[in-house]
Amino acid sequence: MGSTPTPNPTALVTGSSSGIGAAIAQRLAEDGWRVIGVDLTRPAPQSYLVDQLTADLTDLDQVHGVLARVSDVQALVHAAGFMRVGELSKLDPADGDAMWAVHVRALTVLAQGLCPRMPPGGRILAVGSRTSSGAAQRSQYAAVKAAVTALVRSWAIELAPRGITANIIAPAATATAMLSASERADLSPVLPPIGRLIEPREVAAGRQP
Description:
- This protein is an alpha/beta fold.
- 33% of the residues lie in helices and 14% in strands.
- The protein contains five helices and six strands, in the order βαββαβαβαβα.
- The longest helix has 22 residues, at 93-114.
């Protein structure tokens, strides 16, 4: 995320209780940010968070509820997400709708609510996926991640005159709970050239081996 724009700025991080979201939240806190976490369930208190909000991001009312509880946010990090896999003949439209709601709609609504109040130096960061270019049995997930990429790149152009940056990171296969989910048992991740999974802390640090 780079240098902070103001003393003790505030960041809202979705998916803050595990994986890449947790690693980013911790790194931001170490760098002097006040971090508000958002997750589906409330985990044990995390010392690096100044507040922990629970919300089902597939529920539009709950997304608006998050916005009602935060103010003066200088950065939005959207790391929340999940994957459903399946061959074309077995795809469930409900899975696609739910992934769209979390990855795309929630990001859009949060950005709409927070960006008008962001000062110059504000940031939007979304976690994308290299799967967005297409992958067998991951078509719906690839589609929503491709949409996230298009959204963020478009916002980067729109928000640049205000001094607000919008970026997407698409790390290689990362050691997270989503990657080891039971529904992916038959789908081995494509290892990066280093021959191992990326660690979430390496993504949060902005560098990969």
